[in-house]
Amino acid sequence: PLGVALAIGLARWRGRGARPANFLMLFPLVTPEIVMGVALFLVFVYLFGFVQLGTQAQLLGHVTFTISYVVIVVRGRLFAVGREYEEAAMDLGASQWQAIRMVLLPMLAPAIWASLMIAFAISIDDFVITAFLTGDQSSATIPVKLYSAARAAPSPALNALASILLFASMLAIGIALTVMRRSRKKEGAQGSAVEDFARLEI
After folding, report:
1. Residues 149-192 pLDDT 10s
2. Does position 200 have pLDDT exceeding 70, yes or no?
């Protein structure tokens, strides 16, 4: 929800600070993970001392560096959809919130699901940022435990777990691509039907 709200807000923002806000949203994409991990560690330890290293810091850290992917995918869908349907709903008596909830969000559903799968795939196998934000072994994620176990004594079970993690990431990306591809095919079929209807001579 946060990424979708940011995507809609940034797409509709036409003020003076729109460009810097868009730049800040893209910043996690171009920042090396080790730099992002160190920065988040320093922020949580020295600036926001109430955020404890562990599950809480990991959750906030993963939201910080994956939300950009959600914003980019959803914004692309927003520009493709345009504002015509939303404005038509408001012309028919719907409020702006009703137009967003009943018209815009259903049209954004494929992009929302695709961005969710992409964020999941990036987050589930992240090691660098997670390692900086891990407090003790109780909060260690699967990639961190895999790294620790691999340094100690590699085993067939470790290889199997790594393969499962890789398969989960690839499956999530595959689902995201399938959802977006089906959405584009559906839009193409609808667009061609409308064009054929418009060409009919009465």
Report:
1. 777 777 777 778 878 888 888 888 888 888 778 777 766 544 44
2. no
Domain total for the chain? 1
Q: Give the 3-state secondary structure of the chain.
A: CHHHHHHHHHHHCCCCCHHHHHHHHHHHHHCCHHHHHHHHHHHHHHHCCCCCCCHHHHHHHHHHHHHHHHHHHHHHHHHHHCCHHHHHHHHCCCCHHHHHHHHHHHHHHHHHHHHHHHHHHHHHCCCHHHHHHCCCHHHCCHHHHHHHHHHHCCCHHHHHHHHHHHHHHHHHHHHHHHHHHHHHHHHHHHHHHHHHHHHCCC
CATH code of the domain covering residue 50: 1.10.3720.10
How many C-beta atoms lie closer than 10 Å to residue 57's C-beta?
Answer: 23
Specify the pLDDT at position 197: 30
State if pTM tops 0.85.
no
Count how many residues are written for the chain.
202
Q: Residue type for 182, please? A: R
- The range of the structural domain enclosing residue 186 comes to 2-199
